[in-house]
Design a protein that fits this description.
The structure is a single chain. The chain is mostly beta strands. 0% of the residues lie in helices and 55% in strands.
Length: 114
């Protein structure tokens, strides 16, 4: 199983970014997927998740600003991030739920300047 994130970068507060996570080596359409993030000195936290059936959940801190989606034909999951805030600065990791075990990608850095 391999997960590769892309799309991170530096953006000003109020801006947008779209993260992508390309997956291989798994039955993509049957897996729950999601995104975590980790800021320096903080624990990794769940940002958003999406089940194989398309049910989405979000952390309270990102509700109304972030949208998770999946393209089962391309084996890609996305995280659209709008109205970004400096506190969104972190390394973002996508994951695939493998029977209760989360396999993570290598992460992509998102930096939001004020």
């Amino acid at each position: 199983v391999k997960l590769v994130e892309s799309g991170g970068g530096l953006v000003q507060a109020g801006g947008s970014l779209r993260l992508s996570c390309a997956a291989s080596g798994l039955s993509f359409d049957a897996k729950a997927l999601g995104w975590h993030r980790q800021a320096p000195g903080n624990q990794r936290e769940l940002v958003a998740s999406i089940t194989s059936g398309g049910t989405r959940t979000y952390a309270d801190s990102v509700k109304g600003r972030f949208t998770i989606s999946r393209d089962n034909a391309k084996n890609i999951t996305y995280l659209q991030m709008n109205n970004l805030k400096p506190e969104d600065t972190a390394v973002y990791y996508c994951y695939a739920d493998l029977a209760g075990f989360h396999r993570f990608g290598q992460g992509t850095q998102v930096t939001v300047s004020s």
